[in-house]
Amino acid sequence: MQFSLHFLLYFSLLSSIYANLDDEERYFFCNNNTGNYTNGSTYSQNVITTLSSLTANASLTGFVTIAVGDSDTVYGLVQCRPDVSLSDCQACVNTAAEDITRFCPNKKEAMIGYNNCLLRYSDLRFFSTASNSPIAAFYNTGTVNDANVFDTQLANLFRNISISAAWNASKFAAGAIGYSQFSDIYGMVQCTRDLSENDCSSCLQAIVGLIPQCCDQKQGARIYAMSCGLRFELYAFFSTSTPPISGIWPPPSVSPVEPSLSPGRTTNTMVIVVVPVAAVSFLVILVVGCCYLWRKAKKNAAETQDDYETTMESLLVGLDTLKSATANFSVVNKLGQGGFGPVYKGKLMDGREIAVKRLSSNSGQGLEELKTEVLLVAKLLHRNLVKLLGFCLEEEEKLLVYEYLPNGSLDKILFDQRKRLRLDWERRYKIIVGIARGLLYLHEDSQLRIIHRDLKASNILLDEQMNPKISDFGLAKLFGESQTQGNTNRIAGTYGYMAPEYAKNGYFSTRSDVYSFGMLVLEIVTGQKNSSFRNSINLQSHAWLHWTSGTAEELIDPVLADPWPRSEAFKCIHIGLLCVQETAADRPSMSDIISMLSSHSVTAPVPSRPAFFVTAEPANDSGLLQSSDSIQRSVNEVTISELYPR
């Protein structure tokens, strides 16, 4: 058998693609469209610093993103496969940092990848933005015997592991599926870890769709895009260290570059394989499977109540178990106190660490309400939402069991003079984006529309990698798909984060959550509590006065060491002020906010004066407010356009 290297060209790349033809392990992409940098320039020095930082930190977690430089900023990313050892990861990254400047000299954007790792840098912020433009594909020239069965099983395998990878924090999954009596198909997929579930899934779907065009009926192949990659073989290749290619396949030969995926050229191939026994067996299996699914569908309605009871039963946790895990709710294990009761750290018999919320007797939630909330919240699966593991209703106790997050709540770090030093700009921006993605899921992507109603720094928990997770759904309201707002006579929440229409009249909607998000963004950027201001002024007014007077830079938390990207910081202040506007209809939706956060250059309306506006200088108030009505400005690539009356 031979192993052939085959390049995929898209007209959208509009740039040269290079590869070392003597080493099928390496692929790389040099973007000619972004231009070159000169040696000794600021950008050149920032590239050197970026590669050095990525190399130094790669083996800590296997994934690093970094932004270097106030001007001529360089954005870098490095990622290793999670199934390789830290030493193999470090060795791979060391090689990548050396090779990328050798194969892509003086390029402002470049990427290089190997079996064990990939490294990328650019003059544009590409974090959390998926790119499924194909770079290269390697395939085994040997073909399979039974193409129909192989293609069907390969599709099933990639569908399953792609779903797993999209949901996993590592954005990696591998598995195997039966192919013949003597062999299985082994597959692996991986996205860069900064991608959302949807973006990872879309990227993987795109490159899986390329298999018939580049690697049809091949015994093995690898396809790489900028943000994701896949591999399949007829042997197990995923392990602690990558199996040596030599000894399995002869030395590679190289096929000429072919624009096989260029626009206007498609390949429609129908393969008919006549294997009577296999075909009959497959038909029998298909018929039996269809009958099974049909019968199962008929029973779904009758089983709905049984499913409900089964789900509730699976979430029940015994009181004795939780008492043992928390040392009988010992003060030593107390993590904090919320409006609905204290939270305790616990450890189960299997070693899992948990957080147990003990609802007080006057929490206001009835038994049936609590059961309904538990059932719905348990089905919320998103990387930026705290996962509910179970609940307990015994001896007048109402206990909720959540995953334990070691870094605690955001307020404990953000508002601590010593701990806040851990929150550099990159982490703060990551937290803002993560909270936004979690809220978008609640508002638009979950089965029911969910209004949180109590979004604040103490309800944002941080995992071991400082990824944010929204917690505490005690005040959440569940809506049908078409419902977007409601009202209540029982106003509960946290003043300072409440939207004016909710605090004054009890009206709540997705835009009242957006208001809370805006206050949270301003806190993260400034490092100041909204409750730390005196009666003369508040956080949103403080931010507004600086924004309108052109001194927004003074808002940035002074503990942030230079360089920090001013364009991103000003963009976050802009978004925060848009979110805290008086009129709910003027505030952006969470999908709008995600678009603004994801874009390097964004067009957004001028924010109007925030709700609850006060000023410490009443004599100058009228002048400031009058000027705010007609401001049009561009702040560091954040293009602002006039907001016309609705």
From TrEMBL:
Signal peptide: 1-19
Gene3D superfamilies named in the record: Gnk2 domain, C-X8-C-X2-C motif, Phosphorylase Kinase, domain 1, Transferase(Phosphotransferase) domain 1
Keyword annotations: ATP-binding, Glycoprotein, Kinase, Membrane, Nucleotide-binding, Phosphoprotein, Receptor, Repeat, Serine/threonine-protein kinase, Signal, Transferase, Transmembrane, Transmembrane helix
Protein kinase domain location: 329-603
Principal cellular location given in the protein's record: membrane
Catalytic activity: L-threonyl-[protein] + ATP = O-phospho-L-threonyl-[protein] + ADP + H(+); L-seryl-[protein] + ATP = O-phospho-L-seryl-[protein] + ADP + H(+)
GO molecular function, one term: ATP binding
Pfam family, any one: PK_Tyr_Ser-Thr
Subcellular location per the Swiss-Prot or TrEMBL entry: Membrane
Residues of the Gnk2-homologous domain: 25-126, 132-237
An example Gene Ontology biological process: response to stress
Transmembrane parts of this sequence: 270-294
Protein topology in the membrane: Single-pass membrane protein
GO cellular component terms, semicolon-separated: plasma membrane
PROSITE patterns: GNK2, PROTEIN_KINASE_DOM, PROTEIN_KINASE_ST
Official protein name in the record: Cysteine-rich RLK (RECEPTOR-like protein kinase) 25
